[in-house]
Design a protein that fits this description.
The chain has one domain: TATA-Binding Protein (2-Layer Sandwich), CATH 3.30.310. It is built from two helices and five strands. A five-stranded antiparallel β-sheet has the order 1-5-4-3-2, covered by helices on one side. β2 and β3 form a beta hairpin. The termini are far apart.
């Protein structure tokens, strides 16, 4: 198994950060066929071979992805997309 963890500060309100996380989940969902749902301030997503979450706090967000064996080769591409979405929605690291 391969794991990706990206933690980013955000300089916005919690409400706007939650909207940004939803946007990231929707875009990743379209690109990688992920289903997602909210559990408080944590957006959980999954599909066969992938599971993870986006946890939204008052000052930072954490994106965590666990890839199964068959999707490990996509790890660098997925991490790149996560960082790109975070840059667009929360500013550069």
């Amino acid at each position: 198994m391969s794991e990706i963890r990206v933690v980013r500060p955000h300089h916005t309100t919690l409400k706007k950060a939650l909207k940004g996380a939803e946007k990231i989940a929707e875009e990743l969902g379209e690109e990688f066929s992920l289903d997602h749902e909210w559990d408080g301030h944590t957006l959980r997503f999954q599909r066969m071979g992938v599971a993870g979450h986006i946890e939204v706090g008052k000052k930072e967000i954490e994106v965590y992805v666990k890839l199964g064996f068959l999707l490990m080769a996509l790890g660098p591409r997925i991490e790149h997309e996560i960082n790109r979405f975070c840059d667009e929605n929360f500013g550069p690291a």
